[in-house]
Amino acid sequence: MTYGIDFRKCVIAYVQSGHTKKETCDLFGIGTDTLHRWEKQLDELALVKRHYFLPLPLIPLNLIQLNDSWLA
Predict the structure, then answer these.
(1) Is 51 helix (H, G, I), strand (E, B) or coil?
(2) How many other CB atoms are there within 10 angstroms of residue 60's CB atom?
(3) How many domains does the chain have?
(4) 3-state secondary structure of 2
(5) Taking a C-beta distance cutoff of 8 angstroms, is the pair 24, 15 a contact?
(6) How many CB atoms are closer than 10 A to CB 20?
(7) Could you tell me if residue 4 is left (phi over 0), alpha (psi between -120 and 50 degrees) or otherwise beta?
(8) Alpha-carbon distance 24 to 15, whole Å?
(9) Is the whole model's pTM more than 0.85, yes or no?
(10) Are 22 and 32 in contact (CB under 8 A)?
(11) The domain containing residue 13 runs over which residues?
(12) What is the pLDDT along the chain (72 residues), one digit of tens a residue?
């Protein structure tokens, strides 16, 4: 079964608000494997966002200069 993104957000928010995973799964009628998979996907998405969207001021200046000189 495919669940919509709004439903998934609601379930994850419920867990993050302090409810147990068992309680959450029972309330929303989903399996524990499904919840675990959604949490894993959320963690992976956060990791990708942190990795690829590092704000420019947080990149060391000498690394930027090294790359510029290497390209010249």
Answers:
(1) helix
(2) 8
(3) 1
(4) coil
(5) yes
(6) 9
(7) beta
(8) 6
(9) no
(10) yes
(11) 5-71
(12) 789 888 998 999 999 999 999 999 999 999 999 999 999 988 877 766 655 555 555 555 555 554 444 444
